[in-house]
Specification:
mainly alpha; 18 helices; 84% helix; globular
């Protein structure tokens, strides 16, 4: 991984960690403020609304990001043209989906067997346009490689949603509207970020020169849209099935707790997808296959090296993690979380691979994989939930997540001809096995597990160093990342970030 990509990943990853930390704080507080039953309703509202806003907030903006990344250096005056075309398409989509969601709220509530959800769904409708405005600029800054501005906005968004969601929930709790207050917070927070993002746009006064065919955005976006629909349903259909089959708010709340905490691996490495799509788009548009393969190989090695121990440690310490986030009332969610961590680990690899393929223009492969996974997950988890309850739901999702990951790995290998060294993979597995063997020396106690996890992870890294999997090059890269000395290009970028010019 080049120094630029590594530094970009570091900035974005830190902002994603802080942003997702704010999310876990919100869920932990809401779990305590609302209790398992109302927290289950909260989970249903948030996941369904999130699925909708991800659909409209990522599809066309992802296409914008791809095409901006190809021209932002060579044809900067085309940036406002592409941005304007994207905004027009987004306005139509957002308006249509917002109205449809509001009108379908009663039907959604009946399908889930809880008509009282209708008004909550209608209130959450306003989250859709608010999120879309913030998400538009998120992908805009990705496309023009302004990762530091993007990281600043993401961190700021995490702070604002803590203030508004928790603040409004607690303020309205005494009036009996804590859940409604939290939803209002989900509306106000992204609107605040949109205002910040607009003010920081370095190209907002740039004169538009040139033409860009809007159909290019649509052609790229429609398979991405279908992929996002299928992927979000693949990732959440088990939660809806738990609610629909078991008809228990408590069981749904426990499952939502396991689902939320189990998604930590995905949230940690989501930043990698942000960097990869524009990077692969740029190298493939330049027909630089050697650099593309290098990006893919280094990214997958990095992902595997840190994802495997993360999932293993979280699975082993699932009970204290659940207790810390939600209290001992959610202890029954621990075995579900153990399975869900692995499911999310497999889905993380799948998701990263889809953005590599999307960046290379192979958008239909991820779409087909997600559709296949959605139908398979619906079929398998339906029967497993009926037979084994919430544990069955997590087990089914884990099995299907592994299947779609393998599917994506095969197609990525066929496209690029190389993933990364099998020897490196075996070293990572061996070091992980040594680390897991060491877990039996440490008790699963609250809070202390954080210290044990750091020790065990240090053992893992030490074994990799002994195996020479962590090389002098890796250490040099870390040194460069931590160095305060900046190159000329980085100084220019920082000046743009501060001045907004």
């Amino acid at each position: 991984m080049s120094t630029f990509l590594a530094k970009s990943f570091l900035w974005v990853a830190l902002s994603e960690i802080l942003y997702n930390l704010s999310g876990y704080i919100i869920h932990a507080v809401m779990g305590r403020v609302l209790g398992p039953a109302d927290y289950g309703r909260f989970g249903i509202i948030v996941t369904l609304t999130t699925m909708t806003i991800v659909l409209i907030g990522q599809s066309v903006p992802t296409a914008m990001s791809k095409y901006l990344s190809e021209i932002f250096e060579s044809k900067p005056n085309l940036i406002p043209v592409i941005k304007k075309q994207t905004a027009k398409i987004q306005a139509v989509i957002v308006g249509t989906v917002t109205v449809a969601f509001f009108l379908l709220a009663p039907l959604l509530a009946r399908v889930l067997g809880d008509p009282s959800l209708t008004n909550l769904f209608r209130l959450s409708t306003l989250v859709i346009p608010a999120f879309a405005l913030a998400s538009f600029y998120f992908y805009y800054y990705t496309g023009i490689h302004k990762f530091k501005i993007q990281a600043f906005l993401k961190t700021s968004r995490g702070i604002w949603r803590l203030v508004f969601i928790i603040g409004l929930a607690l303020f309205l709790k005494s009036r009996g509207y804590a859940l409604e207050g939290a939803i209002l917070g989900y509306i106000i927070a992204p609107l605040s970020i949109f205002i910040e993002a607009y003010s920081l746009d370095p190209y907002k006064k740039l004169k538009a020169i040139g033409n860009f065919e809007w159909r290019k955005l649509a052609v790229f976006a429609w398979p991405v849209t279908i992929f996002l629909i299928a992927y979000q349903l693949l990732n959440t259909i088990d939660l809806y099935l738990v609610k629909g089959i078991l008809h228990s708010d408590v069981q749904t709340g426990l499952y939502n707790a396991a689902y939320t905490v189990g998604a930590i691996p995905y949230n940690l490495f989501y930043a990698l997808t942000i960097i990869l799509l524009p990077s692969v788009s740029k190298t493939t548009s330049e027909n630089n296959s050697a650099e593309t393969k290098k990006i893919v190989s280094h990214s997958l090695r990095f992902l595997t090296m840190f994802l495997v121990p993360t999932c293993l440690l979280m699975a082993y310490f699932s009970l204290p993690i659940i207790n810390i986030f939600y209290s001992s009332k959610y202890a029954l969610a621990a075995p579900v979380m153990t399975l869900y961590v692995f499911a999310e680990g497999f889905q993380t690899v799948f998701y990263v691979l889809t953005f590599i393929l999307n960046g290379a223009g192979k958008v239909k492969i991820p779409m087909n994989a997600a559709i296949f996974g959605l139908f398979l997950n619906t079929f398998i988890t339906y029967f497993l939930i009926k037979q084994y309850g919430i544990v069955g739901g997590a087990a089914g999702t884990m099995i299907v997540s592994f299947a779609v990951m393998v599917f994506a790995l095969v197609y990525t290998y066929r496209e690029f001809g190389y993933l990364f060294s099998v020897k490196s993979f075996l070293k990572i597995l061996t070091a992980s096995a040594v680390m897991i063997a060491g877990t039996f020396l440490f008790p699963k106690t609250n809070y202390y597990f954080l210290i044990w996890s750091v020790i065990l992870f240090a053992i893992y890294l030490f074994v990799l160093y002994i195996f020479r999997e962590i090389s002098a090059k890796d250490l040099l890269l870390v040194k460069e990342l931590l160095s305060r000395k900046k190159k000329k290009g980085e100084e220019i970028e920082d000046a743009e970030f501060v001045d907004g010019k």
